[in-house]
């Protein structure tokens, strides 16, 4: 199950990076400075940082008016969870283990979501 640690770690780190990229882009927008391209934000979201993107959109009130982000971010959250379940199911077979691996991944995402939640 070492692959589970790598994939979960990858997604966790990428969500943190994506979250801070949304914050940095918002800060630069306020100051009229060079911005992070939307394509980069979409790429980070697509590669596994969808939950960080959602949290960043909510916390920094950034990209919340753009319909592309409002559509794509929840879509990628769903795809990432389903993809992780598929990976767990494929490597572990149709067992309860696949369910538990998916549940652990969701809990890791939820913990990240709550840790960075704005107070």
Automatic annotation (TrEMBL):
InterPro entries: DUF1294. It holds the Pfam family DUF1294. Keywords: Membrane, Transmembrane, Transmembrane helix. The chain crosses the membrane at residues 6-25, 71-89, 95-116. It comes from the Bacteria. This is DUF1294 domain-containing protein.
């Amino acid at each position: 199950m070492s692959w589970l640690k790598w994939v979960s770690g990858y997604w966790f780190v990428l969500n943190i990076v994506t979250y801070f990229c949304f914050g940095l882009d918002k800060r630069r927008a306020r100051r009229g400075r060079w911005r992070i391209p939307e394509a980069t934000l979409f790429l980070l979201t697509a590669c596994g940082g969808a939950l960080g993107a959602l949290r960043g959109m909510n916390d920094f009130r950034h990209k919340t008016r753009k319909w592309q982000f409002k559509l794509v971010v929840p879509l990628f959250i769903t795809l990432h969870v389903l993809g992780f379940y598929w990976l767990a199911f494929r490597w572990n077979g149709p067992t309860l283990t696949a369910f538990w691996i998916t549940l652990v991944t969701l809990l890791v995402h939820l913990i990240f979501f709550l840790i960075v939640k704005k107070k």
